[in-house]
Design a protein that fits this description.
With about 250 residues, the chain is mainly alpha-helical. Among the domains are: about 1-75, Tetratricopeptide repeat domain (Serine Threonine Protein Phosphatase 5, Tetratricopeptide repeat, Alpha Horseshoe), CATH 1.25.40.10; about 165-254, Tetratricopeptide repeat domain (Serine Threonine Protein Phosphatase 5, Tetratricopeptide repeat). The chain has helices spanning about 5-20, 20-35, 40-50, 55-65, 70-80, 85-95, 100-115, 115-130, 135-145, 150-160, 165-175, 180-195, 195-210, 215-225, 230-240. The N and C termini lie far apart (about 50 Å).
């Protein structure tokens, strides 16, 4: 096959996979992968990973050896899930150095797990400066944890202004901690409108503080519907006449 034919076959296989015609897709991917198409190798790994991690790893290693950064990142994720963190770091670094921002983000998360926030900041900052929105949030959160709020706030604002609901909530958390509570409420409102469960919960707490129990219960119930682990209990407590009057929930801080 020439290059154009290979690419056409790859796109056809991808379309078949999206339609749920997995066996046909896999057959075509295998044919294209056999001709050295790295994208087909990556996607064969994705098809295989649930049934056979070893097979997925073989395909991703082949693609990684061909220079595919997505395959490198996927190997990092696989190794991390297997508890082989040093290997995960090696693959994340390789992918990040090849320009993969998702791998750079994941490398930052590895350092967060180790409580090495200074090194996490380095990785998140590289990705954030390249436009990775999730890294903007995590960079701001890590800087906040390091007691560098003046540096944290601009990054959280950048992420929030790009529509990241997590960053909206994190910005609200930071502003609340700085006693800029009206501003915090504004960002939690925006996060809540975007469906962020933590923003909804925090608005419930703030409504309790303002003695608006009807709104508090409504926010807690919406938070529960959005997946917040404590939303239902707080809503039920209010419905029973109990007023916990607690502090905002800030799980975003590492």
């Amino acid at each position: 096959m020439d290059e154009d034919t290979l690419e056409a076959e790859f796109r056809l296989a991808k379309s078949l996979a999206e339609q749920g015609r997995t066996q046909e897709a896999e057959r075509r991917y295998r044919a294209v992968a056999g001709k050295g198409h790295a994208g087909a190798m990556v996607n064969l790994g994705l098809l295989a990973v649930e049934r056979d991690e070893a097979e997925a790893e073989r395909w991703w290693r082949a693609a990684a050896e061909a220079g595919d950064d997505v395959a490198m990142r996927n190997l990092g994720i696989l190794k991390h899930d297997q508890g082989r963190v040093e290997e995960a770091e090696t693959w994340y670094r390789a992918a990040a150095e090849a320009g993969d921002l998702g791998a750079r983000y994941n490398l930052g998360l590895l350092f967060v797990e180790r409580r090495d926030l200074e090194r996490a900041v380095e990785q998140f900052q590289i990705a954030a400066e390249a436009g990775h929105v999730g890294s903007m949030n995590n960079l701001g959160v890590a800087l906040g944890e390091l007691n560098r709020p003046d540096e944290a706030e601009p990054w959280l604002r950048r992420g929030a202004e790009k529509g990241d609901a997590r960053a909206m909530c994190s910005l609200g958390d930071l502003l609340y901690s700085l006693k800029r509570r009206d501003e915090a409420d504004e960002w939690w409102e925006r996060g809540a409108a975007a469906g962020d469960a933590n923003s909804l919960f925090n608005l419930g707490v703030r409504s309790e503080h303002k003695e608006d129990m009807a709104r508090a219960e409504e926010c807690f119930r919406k938070a529960a519907e959005a997946g917040h682990p404590h939303g239902e209990a707080r809503a039920n407590a209010l419905a029973s006449g109990f007023w916990p009057n607690g502090a905002p929930y800030m799980p975003g801080w590492f």
